[in-house]
Design goal:
Helix content: 40-55%
Shape: globular
Membrane topology: Single-pass membrane protein
Function: May act as a GTPase-activating protein for Rab family protein(s).
GO molecular function, one term: GTPase activator activity
Radius of gyration: 41 Å
Main location: membrane
Number of helices: 51
Distance between the termini: 31 Å
Strand order of the largest sheet: 9-8-7-6-12-11-10
Largest sheet: 7 strands, antiparallel
GO cellular component, one term: membrane
Strand content: 5-15%
Oligomer: single chain
Length: 1254
């Protein structure tokens, strides 16, 4: 690459001059390439250890003038080819011009200007995105691509200097982190280490310190453990590695490939050595943390954050913290954890103004909202810029107030005057019938057609209010009053100050009238609902009357959702539940519907209207419980792993016992997936849900630990899993909520766990209090860290399970062993994933469907299959191998979707590796018949035939037998005989063939129904052009074999025999069509030919018999009858040195005489040729003696055919061929060799990365 001219003082230090002229020097770095001795070793080591490894290219060009001691670097190159190109350009374009100048300063100025001009011209053509990466980083990326053989699309994220521990010896080098790979390179005193690991192969990634290793990063794959240490900033490196491994796991989980965000704002200050990709990943990490902290929608992107203080009116203090600004929100988080959190949606903001600064309150900022609340921020470092950013975002915020935000929270306050819809007692007939037909037609929620469109089911099915008048009702009123006071002091709605006081109130239980409102606020669902008015109603309308797998599952589970609650004992509640679940399934087809969603949604509908319940479900499935409700419940398995880890930490004695009994995996899924709603009485479980919406998964984990802690002694005495489950079941059944104002709903689970002793009741609020006292030191950041670690483990475990399932499914039908199948699966999957990395235009990546069985999830296209076939096939055919791979792909792709799954892949491989000679030949035979063989591929055979036959002289061949002559006469019908073929005869012939075709298709259909094993009798016959392609494949296949000459001789013998068999067979197959009785008599006198000719019904194949073709030749044949013809044998010399000028010769009759000859034939023998001498059109051709078509070279002989039995019988006569096809090939060795090739990046003349051997 051309460089902006840089001054170089010592041109000879560490460099060797290879070319020179009066104005330029071409130099090579010492230690690069061959030789170099000790100096080269030292320089090479320094280049790797120091940062120069990335910065210094191995070649450079310097500009010099005779009298000056200063040199200017004008170009550098990573390969000799690249630098030579620059050197030649300078010599051709600049040398003559520079010789004209008299002043050396003018020469240098001219050269500098010319080089700057070239660079400017090159930069015009480059993509603007590459401009964002600093020059030093580009050089490192170029070095990485050359060193590890990565394509252009593989992007480098960052690189770090570190040591890789090989045994107990550290190897100092460079760690390159790309989007899909972890790479390491070290070169120390001649010892080279190269590592390439895919992120999808990483099973464990952790940062630790041991006695043996200093603080290091451990990377574990299924095959090895790698340790890297001596980082300058180990935390930054580990964080980036975690992020990249997470992206890879996401790709395995839901097929999401990495797409760089090109809309990132440019940094205000230029960054020295940070790539655009690294900035993108850093921004993603910050966005995820920001959204999780404040429960914001998934598309919210953080714009920036700054330190500040917030005036809190409830305690009259300035609280230090950070302000976060994004497109739609201003948020604040105090430095002291949970002291205060604040979320201000920009849609609520009315005024943003700068207040007067003072020594007490520097740089204050006032923000007012529509709810008459004002927030004062101070100590802002760049207040003017911040106000400008907020103003810009406010201008983009829609000025029209969304419809949903007009709705006030009045109905939640419990005022009698606010309830517009009358309460429906469960015994009322109206409760059963009013919406019985609602699910059969579109519903207008705005018009209030459905009661559940505006209120929760609990209000519609409120029971007798006796409890409201007693002590429980008084307690409930006190709770409501406490919350009203809290709203007065801390604000209400999204802009409420959230403090430890808020959490304390949540722990005491949210009043039923406020539950829906506060769930929406704490979960962040309110934001999404307000910003998407009418979205739910549209979804309901679109999904109405649509049916798919998800809707079937929903219908099946509707009546299992809280059947004990009166709200779901009638069509009103069932219809509402159906609409919400179906709407979500249409919103998110990836999840669709998963069991346990119905239980959670039914509880949401009790306290919220349908739209609110829908958005709460969205918040649960997509943000608060990520990946919980997909087909493999990965999120729940991840949190189950965290629970096991926490149990080991907090309850070590119990942990061992629980592992021994296998209880944790059983209990945690039901606890986490339904938020305890399915295992605890409803009145108690709903309090758990209160705390969950405020605290997140942290609360579920600490309550789970508290439950185990309360039962430690009993669990330690358990003998089996059933006993442990009974103890925990009975405990949970007796967790009661004595403050609930609703009558207790019978819990079905309690019936299964009743015992003799009266149960000991546990108050839910005591359980919550205990969980906070003992396990409240759980931190959200720690849980997220553990989630990453467990996600690696869970997804890799699921991938292993998938591999075993697929291998088990295909092993019964395939000849490979289990070990071989597992290795093949790994290779197959890696090839599929490669298309996700680098093949954006390929269909395979886009068509992966997680809902399909494991066997169908990974599928590859033809290009990927060809790459695998070339490396794994035992039938290497040189340049012909890709052609053979394409044919096998078409043969395997039975459904014609241009993709094949693993079973189809190993079926094709097994046909080449396993079975006897017959089975392998059968595969090879099929590869030269449709659909494997394309019609286009036979064009070369037509050309070859033309080449062999166009100059043949017309003489009588001494090898023409009576049979040949008779059949030849048969084709010489006179014009009068043709005229006597009237229409009725033709109709009769057609009528005669129709039933045959009909019976043929009936037989084919019957065979498909029988699904019996295919036999050699079932294989159709092969035409001449297909046979030519088969011969071409065989000739290519035997090249580079140890017994190559024997194989060529054997196939030449077999081919010649088969050609004659085909000739004779053609004449017998033509007999029914001809009318000459004399010829029939003569043909019956040749018993040998009759034995060799096909006699089965299948011999009358449409590809063999073509009546129109035979008719059209009659006149031509009759015209040339007076002159007998000879088809001379054409053959290649067998190594005797004859005909050195050309591989093809016309030999005399004596030289081609063969005692077995029964008709004239053409033959190409390549016994003495090397593989590269056999061109595509050098093929075997058999031509009918006396055929005008062959004589004039117009077309392939379409009457010629051969059967598989004849090919097999001919092959068995040659020992060399039998040995070749029956020899065993170890596919594991081929897979191993392929991996070595992938990991080996040897030096080449293209970019010369050779190392100096020690």
């Amino acid at each position: 690459m051309w460089l902006g001219p840089e001054e170089v003082l010592l041109a000879g230090a560490l460099w060797v001059t290879e070319r020179a002229n009066p104005f330029f020097l071409l130099q090579r770095r010492r230690g690069h390439g061959k030789g170099g001795g000790l100096t080269g070793l030292l320089v090479g080591t320094l280049d790797v250890v120091l940062d120069s490894s990335a910065r210094v290219a191995p070649y450079r060009i310097l500009h010099q003038t005779q009298d000056s001691q200063v040199y200017w670097a004008v170009a550098c190159g990573s390969s000799r080819k690249e630098i030579t190109k620059h050197w030649e350009w300078l010599e051709n374009n600049l040398l003559q011009t520079l010789s004209i100048f008299d002043n050396e300063e003018d020469i240098t100025t001219f050269v500098k200007g010319k080089i700057h001009g070239i660079i400017a011209e090159e930069n015009k053509n480059q993509q603007p995105q590459s401009e964002e990466d600093p020059g030093k980083f580009k050089e490192a990326e170029l070095k990485m691509r050359k060193q590890f053989g990565m394509p252009e699309v593989e992007k480098l994220v960052n690189y770090y200097s570190c040591s890789y521990w090989k045994g107990r010896v550290p190897r100092q080098g460079w760690l390159y982190l790309t989007v899909n790979h972890l790479c390491f390179y070290s070169f120390l005193l001649g010892k080279e280490v190269t590592l390439v690991i895919q992120w999808v192969d990483v099973t464990q990634l952790e940062k630790n310190a041991t006695l043996l290793f200093p603080e290091c990063i451990k990377v574990r794959t299924r095959d090895s453990e790698l340790y890297f240490s001596m980082f300058l900033n180990i935390n930054e490196t580990f964080k980036l590695m975690e992020q990249l491994a997470n992206i890879a796991m996401r790709q395995l989980l839901d097929n999401e490939s990495f797409l760089q965000d090109k809309s990132l704002p440019k940094p205000r200050k230029p960054l020295k050595n940070i790539s655009a990709l690294k900035r993108d990943l850093d921004a993603r990490a910050k966005n995820e943390c920001y959204r999780a902290t404040f429960r914001l929608p998934k598309d919210e992107c953080l714009d920036g954050h700054t330190d500040c203080t917030l005036w809190t009116p409830f305690n009259k203090m300035h609280i230090p913290g950070q302000m976060f600004v994004s497109n739609n929100y201003i948020c604040f988080a105090s430095k002291a954890e949970e002291a205060c959190h604040l979320i201000i949606p920009l849609r609520e903001v009315t005024i943003v103004e700068k207040a007067d600064s003072s020594s007490v309150l520097p740089s204050p900022l006032s923000i007012s909202t529509k709810s008459k609340m004002t927030f004062f921020f101070a100590n802002l470092k760049d207040r003017d810029f911040l106000v400008q950013r907020i103003s810009d975002f406010l201008q983009r915020t829609p000025s029209k107030k969304p419809i949903s935000s007009e709705r006030e929270w009045k109905w939640n306050l419990g005022d009698p005057g606010c309830e517009e819809v009358p309460e429906l007692p469960s015994s009322s007939p109206l409760a059963v019938s009013p919406t019985s037909a609602l699910n059969n037609r579109p519903v207008n929620f705005c018009a209030g057609e459905v009661p559940t469109a505006s209120q929760g089911l609990l209000k519609l099915f409120r029971r007798n209010s006796e409890e409201l008048l007693g002590p429980k009702g008084a307690k409930e009123k006190m709770k409501e009053e406490s919350w009203n006071i809290h709203f007065f002091e801390y604000g209400r709605g999204m802009c409420m100050y959230r403090t430890t006081k808020t959490r304390e109130l949540v722990q005491k239980g949210i009043p039923e009238n406020l539950r829906g409102e506060l769930w929406l606020l704490f979960s962040g669902a309110w934001n999404e609902m307000v910003t998407h008015p009418g979205y739910y109603a549209d979804l309901v309308e679109k999904s109405m009357g649509k049916y798919n797998l998800a809707t079937e599952e929903i219908e099946r589970d509707l009546h299992r959702s809280m059947p004990e609650h009166p709200a779901f004992q009638n069509e009103l509640g069932i219809a509402a539940l159906r609409r919400v679940l179906t709407a979500y399934a249409f919103r998110n087809p990836t999840i669709g519907y998963c069991q346990a969603m119905n239980i959670v949604t039914s509880v949401l509908l009790l306290y919220c209207n349908e739209e609110e319940a829908f958005w709460l479900l969205v918040a649960l499935c997509e943000r608060m419980l990520p990946d919980y409700y997909n087909t493999r419940v990965v999120g729940a398995l991840v949190d189950q792993g965290i629970f096991e880890e926490l149990t080991r930490e907090y309850l070590p004695q119990l942990s061992e016992k629980m592992q021994e009994l296998g209880v944790i995996s059983t209990i945690s899924l039901s606890w986490f997936l339904t938020l305890f709603l399915s295992v605890m009485p409803f009145e108690s479980a709903v309090v758990i849900v209160d705390c969950f919406f405020y605290e997140g998964i942290k609360f579920i984990l600490q309550v789970s630990l508290a439950i185990l802690d309360a039962n430690v002694e009993k669990l330690l005495q358990c003998c089996d899993e059933g006993e442990a489950m009974t103890i925990l079941g009975r405990y949970l059944d007796n967790v009661v909520n004595r403050q609930s104002v609703s009558p207790p709903i019978p819990h079905l689970h309690a019936l299964l766990t009743s015992g003799d002793d009266p149960p000991l009741e546990i108050d839910i609020f005591d359980l919550i209090k205990t969980s906070y006292e003992k396990f409240s030191n759980l931190k959200v950041d720690d849980i997220e860290q553990m989630r990453f670690k467990q996600r690696l483990k869970v997804i890799q475990s699921l991938e292993d399970t998938a591999k075993k399932s697929v291998v088990r499914a295909v092993s019964s039908d395939i000849g490979f062993s289990i070990e071989e199948l597992e290795e093949l699966y790994v290779v197959f999957k890696a090839k599929y994933l490669m298309s996700c990395y680098w093949g954006n235009n390929r269909a395979a990546a886009a068509r992966r469907d997680q809902s399909l069985p494991y066997l169908e999830q990974y599928r590859i296209d033809m290009e990927q299959f060809k790459e695998l076939f070339i490396t794994l096939t035992p039938w290497s055919c040189g340049a012909h191998t890709p052609v053979l791979a394409g044919r096998l792909f078409r043969l395997l792709d039975e459904n014609r979707d241009s993709l094949i799954n693993f079973k189809e892949f190993v079926t094709g491989m097994s046909g080449m590796y396993h079975g006897d000679l017959t089975e392998k030949l059968k595969v090879l035979y099929k590869l030269h018949l449709p659909p494997a063989l394309n019609p286009e591929e036979t064009e070369s055979a037509l050309e070859a035939t033309s080449y062999f036959t166009e100059d043949v002289t017309t003489e009588v061949s001494p090898f023409v037998s009576e049979l040949d002559f008779c059949l030849h006469c048969e084709s010489q019908e006179t014009q009068e005989e043709k005229g006597r073929r009237n229409d009725s005869g033709q109709e009769k012939e057609e009528k005669g063939t129709s039933p045959q075709d009909y019976r043929y298709y009936l037989r084919m259909w019957a065979k498909e129904k029988e699904s019996k094993k295919e036999t050699i009798k079932d294989l159709p016959k092969m035409s001449q052009e297909q046979f030519i392609e088969l011969c071409k494949t065989l000739y290519n296949m035997f090249s580079e074999d140890p017994v190559e000459q024997e194989l060529y001789h054997a196939i030449a013998t077999v081919a010649s025999l088969l050609l004659r068999i085909g000739e004779v067979g053609k004449k017998f197959s033509n007999r029914p069509i001809r009318k000459s009785e004399d010829c029939k008599t003569n043909s019956s006198q040749d018993p040998v030919s009759e034995e060799e000719s096909p006699t089965s019904e299948q011999s009358q194949n449409s590809t063999v018999e073509q009546q129109p073709r035979a008719d059209c030749e009659d006149k031509t044949c009759r015209d040339v009858q007076p002159e007998k013809t000879e088809q001379e044998n054409q053959t290649l010399g067998d190594g005797s040195g004859e005909g050195q000028g050309s591989p093809l010769q016309l030999l005399s009759d004596d030289e081609t005489k063969d005692d077995m000859s029964m008709s004239s034939y053409s033959m190409v023998s390549t016994g003495s040729l090397q593989c590269e001498d056999i061109a595509d059109d050098t093929v075997l051709v058999g031509c009918e003696g006396g055929s005008s078509a062959a004589r004039y070279g117009s077309t392939i002989d379409t009457d010629w055919s051969i059967s598989f039995e004849q090919i097999l019988a001919s092959m068995l006569t040659e020992t060399a061929l039998v040995n070749y096809f029956e020899k065993k090939v170890n596919i594991l060795q081929k897979i191993k060799d392929q991996k070595k090739v992938e990991r080996q990046f040897s030096s080449s003349s293209d970019y010369e990365l050779s190392s100096v051997s020690g």
